Amino acid sequence: MKKIIGPFTQILPLTGLPLKGALKDEQLHLIANGGVLVDNGLIVETGDFNELRKANPSTPTEEIQTGHVLLPGFIDCHTHICFGGNRAKDYAMRIAGKTYLEIAKAGGGIWDTVTQTRAADEATLVNSLVQRANRHLAEGVTTIEVKSGYGLSLEEELKQLRAIKTASVQTKAKLIATCLAAHMVPKDFTGSQEEYLQHIVDDLLPVIKQEKLTNRVDIFIEQSAINVENALIYLKKAKQMGFDITVHADQFTTGGCAVAVAVGAVSADHLEASGEHEIELLADSNIVAVTLPGASMGLGMPYAPARNLLNAGACLAIASDWNPGSAPMGDLLMQAAVMSASEKLSAAEVFAGLTFRAASALKIEGGILAPGMPADMQAYPCADYREILYYQGKLKPNKIWIGGNDPMTQ
């Protein structure tokens, strides 16, 4: 259906900005008293509201009350929101001073979530995933990447990925699945790390291809998970099978960025431990550097070097890492706003990292309000875009559109 939506006090289309490097707020294009012409789910034109109405006199208008700022919908390019149970016990132990290894030895950590996710049936995973996706959508996140990785067996990884596929038709949020079967070697696998990864290549990835569950593969490269040497071999095989690659890199120790560059990954995510060498590697590549401030908050760790990555010329995206262990909050805007104060990121850099630069990490179109782009948008009840980050996540959008329609009423 063709319609004009507006007027908005300000529209930030986020057009005309580079994909890589630092940004200043002065580079932002603002449309005052703006409107958006939408047709068949896509943006036809943005511009002055009155001019759009004059040029399209027979087109119906969706009237917006005065005092709203319009942005593209946020794109969360790294989450783990398909899981069973919770890890509140882990969090209590962490804030009491226990280490990651101590928590794992006490029965916590990733394996605890694996156990709880395996115990949940597919319908339960679908229902909980839809609830989390809808909460994200209500907070302006219109596209959400969702990883497996809490099954860690052929049957259980397929259960997770099938749950994501089913959930994608039960929520208006756009879900993009990623296979993270290489999250860690499961405790009940009797072979070596190399044998587990080969098992994924031989037995899991072909089924994923056949059922068209995802074209993305992720891996957790860390001393406690998958080592650099085995990760490189595994990712090369996955890429030969036609999968896009993303990497959990440099969360606690370095090494993951070099693997990401070597295999031509789409993104390298986490980066809390990245130093000058890793920053240079990412800046000299076309890999999207994905920072995850929610994990830093949840673990009490420093943020990834977002400012230095941008200054070096990298493409920086910001994602929530919403998961039951290290990042249970899942409030993407709040996390980005708080990190921006610590890392000294401009509003332009934050909004770019939550929209079109995050879209690049998923190899999708979107994240800008331009002709031909999906009309996935959000409006905030304020008169100045700077208020959105000023309130550090407490100001939420009160109007969301997916394809130009309100997903909450469809």
Tell me the radius of gyration. Answer: 21 Å
| CATH topology description of the largest domain | TIM Barrel
**What is the CATH superfamily label of the largest domain?**
Metal-dependent hydrolases
Determine the N-to-C terminus distance. 14 Å
Sheet/helix structural class: alpha/beta
Number of contiguous helices: 16
- Indicate the percent of residues in helices: 25-40%
**CATH A-level architecture of the largest domain:** Alpha-Beta Barrel
**Are there runs of 5+ residues with pLDDT below 50, and where?**
none
Mind explaining what this structure looks like?
With 410 residues, this protein is α/β, with parallel strands linked by helices. Helix content is 38%, strand content 20%. Helix 10 (276-283) packs across helix 12 and helix 14 (347-354) packs parallel to helix 15. Strands 6-7-8-9-10-11-12-13 form an eight-stranded parallel β-sheet, sandwiched between helices. Strands 1, 2, 3, 4, 5, 14 and 15 form a seven-stranded mixed β-sheet that branches. A hairpin with a 2-residue loop joins strand 2 (31-39) and strand 3 (42-48). It is built from 16 helices and 15 strands. It has helices at residues 49-55, 88-95, 100-105, 110-119, 122-138, 154-167, 193-211, 228-240, 256-263, 276-283, 293-299, 306-312, 332-343, 347-354, 356-362, 386-390; strands at residues 3-11, 31-39, 42-48, 61-63, 69-72, 74-76, 141-147, 174-182, 216-219, 244-249, 267-270, 288-291, 315-318, 377-380, 399-401. It has two domains: 3-73 and 368-401, Urease, subunit C, domain 1; 75-362, Metal-dependent hydrolases (TIM Barrel).
